[in-house]
Amino acid sequence: MEDNPSEDWETMQIDIGIAEADRKAIAEGLNNVLADTFALYLKTHSFHWNVTGPMFNTLHTMFMTQYTELWTALDEVAERIRALGYPAPGSFSQFTKLASIKEEQGVPNAQEMLRQLVEGHEAVARTARKVFPTAEEANDQPTADLLTQRLQIHEKTAWMLRSMLE
Length: 166
What we know:
Layout: H1 5-11, H2 20-50, H3 56-83, H4 92-98, H5 110-137, H6 141-164
C-alpha cells in the first residue's frame, strides 16, 4: 500500500481529449478570468458596504445580489482550472498580477460606484472573450460553456448598471 496516494494522483496523466499545451493555455486564460472576477467581487462587496445616498437601499441590495453571484462564479472558474490539471491562483498577490481591474482605494459616490462596476463587468467580459478562441480550437466545450455563461451575466449586469447612470 502506498504511503501517500495523493502524490500518485497529482502526477497522474490527464487524458480528457485536450492536449496538454491547450489545457495549459486555457488554464492560464482562466487564471485571468478568475483574477478579474475576484477583483470585481471585492469592489462590489466594498461598494455594498459603503454606498450612501438616495438610492442606498436599491444599490445596497443590488450590490449584494451581484457580489453573491460573483462569489459563486469564483468557485466555478477555479474548479474548471483544476479540472484542466492546473492549480488555481488564490492569493492577493497572484490576483493583483493577473487582474485587469484596479482596486478602488477610497469610497466613491454612488454614481462613481455604478460607473466603476460597469467598467468592471465589461473588463471581465473582455478577459473571458480572450480565452474563447483557445477553448473552441481545443474542442473544450465545458470551458466554452462556462465562458458563455459568464459573458451573458457580465454583459447583462453591465447593461443594467449602465441603465442606472442614464
